[in-house]
Structures are given as C-alpha cells and as structure tokens.
Specification:
single chain, alpha/beta, Rossmann fold, eight-stranded mixed beta sheet, 32% helix, Small_GTPase_ARF/SAR, MglA protein
C-alpha cells in the first residue's frame, strides 16, 4: 500500500500468482476487455515468442473510496515458469493481495503445489504469513476433461480455507467473482491499518 496524500489516493497491488500457463494473463486480458475505459489504465504485457509473460501484466483499476481516499488497484501477473523465480519475488514486493490461479487438471497438481509453496516462502521473506494475508484461490480451466474434483483440489491446495472460485478464464467464468473477492479482502485489510 502506498498513499499519495496530495492526491488523497491509495495505491494497492494485487498479484495473480500461479504455475505457468494456468491462466493468470488470461484473467487480466478478460478484465481489461470488460472494464469501462474510464475505470482502467493501459494493459502492459511483456511476452516471449512463445506468448508467455516474462515479467508482468499490469492493469490499473479505480473503484469507490476507502476512508475518503480514492483506491487504485494495480493488477499484476507473475511468470509461472520456475526459472523466473527471482522475477516472481520482485513482483510480489509491496503486494496487498494475491489471487492464486491454480490449473485444475490432475497432471498439474505438482506444479500448483510447488508454486503455492514458492508464494508462501516469498511472502514470508517479506514479513507476511499466508494464513493472515488477503488472498483467494481460483481453480481455473474447469472446462477441460481431465480436471480434478474441487474437493480434491481444496484438500491439496487450500490448507488455510481461503475463499475459492471455479473459473474458465478464457470465457470469463469466475473471473470477476475472483477479482471482487480479493478486492474486498484487501479493502478490509487496509481499513484496519488506516
């Protein structure tokens, strides 16, 4: 959280975190395509030739007020590939909330677990505890034939019983529900601090 007192503005950072090709960028692309132009900033995307995000996608949203101050939500994604571990850590710096985008397919469970452990370790190094931090889980790719049941994913990935959402981000299913939930958690957390 960064407060610009001159503009009475609170800048808040939400990071979409998850394994490679789980749908993090697809979430931001869908959000950007549906939000009114006056409420959003430009979508910045850095990609490789393979069409994977290298550093981040960034989208700025403006909504409502928090204790008289105008919040701006900056949405980022991290690269999911393991060899970008340092980039993920840097992008998490100063984060106010996280959307963990899990790939619902059975064969992606190990990648989900590794990335979730990575998230927890990176947050811990920044002085946060995952069980006390504003975050939600999005179980993405629910339209594919080889997805694990939600109960199984919950057992394996949601040890802190945070809010979770089923999604098909390519179609927009669950995308705004996920975003709204994480924004509400972040706002509640900020109100405690102000």
């Amino acid at each position: 959280m960064y407060i610009n007192w001159a503009l009475q503005q609170i800048n808040l950072k939400i990071v979409y975190y998850g394994p490679g090709v789980s749908g993090k960028t697809t979430n931001l692309l869908y959000i950007h395509s549906k939000v009114a132009p006056e409420l959003k900033g430009e979508l910045v995307s850095l990609q490789t030739q393979e069409d994977r995000t290298i550093f981040f996608d960034f989208l700025q949203l403006e909504v409502g007020k928090i204790k008289g101050k105008k919040p701006k939500f900056n949405l980022y994604t991290v690269p999911g590939q393991v060899y970008y571990a340092y980039s993920r850590k840097v992008i998490l710096n100063g984060v106010d909330g996280v959307v963990f985008v899990a790939d619902s397919q059975f064969d992606r469970l190990e990648a989900n677990l590794e990335t979730l452990n990575d998230l927890e370790n990176n947050l811990r190094q920044d002085g946060h505890k995952l069980n006390e931090f504003p975050w939600v889980i999005q179980y993405n790719k629910r339209d594919l034939p080889n997805v694990a049941p939600i109960q199984y994913l919950q057992l394996k990935l949601n040890k802190f019983n945070v809010p979770y959402f089923e999604a098909v981000s390519t179609q927009g299913n669950g995308v705004f529900e996920t975003l709204k939930a994480v924004i509400n958690l972040v706002v509640a957390n900020v109100r405690k601090k102000l």
